[in-house]
Write a structure and sequence with these properties.
The chain is of the alpha+beta class. The protein contains five helices and three strands. The protein has a three-stranded antiparallel β-sheet with strand order 1-2-3. The longest helix has 14 residues, at 84-97.
Length: 124
């Protein structure tokens, strides 16, 4: 019943439009930044620097405040209830666009400019 109530027929384009609209609504972004990806919200915010919100249908939106919104729909979900592929896609875009605001730990993966496990060249 819960999943049925949460399932709305939307496309990634629809979700991206919603995310872009939220880019200028700071009080909503604050909630997304603190609770948008269930138990993994803190990991997500550290990884991407973007407030986000996931759904049980496999959709995920993320917002760069005042700049843009992005969305991906791609089940299956991880143990926390978030889309595995959507998280990876948006995290990679966040890294490439420089949206990530947190310094990267040098404890894993080497020093500045090392190649990550995703194969994306990161600078920090």
């Amino acid at each position: 019943m819960y999943t049925e109530q949460c399932s709305v027929s939307v496309s990634a384009k629809d979700l991206a439009l919603m995310a872009g609209t939220l880019a200028n609504v700071p009080h909503v972004l604050a909630v997304m930044a603190t609770a948008g990806l269930y138990d993994d919200t803190g990991k997500w915010l550290y990884r991407t620097g973007l407030p986000g919100k996931s759904g049980v249908g496999g959709g995920l939106i993320a917002v760069s405040p005042g700049k843009f919104g992005i969305a991906v729909i791609s089940p299956p979900l991880d143990d926390a209830g978030n889309s595995v592929r959507a998280e990876k896609a948006i995290a990679d875009i966040s890294t490439l666009s420089g949206a990530t605001r947190w310094p990267r730990s040098r404890g894993r993966g080497g020093g500045a400019g090392s190649r990550s496990r995703t194969g994306i060249h990161e600078r920090w």
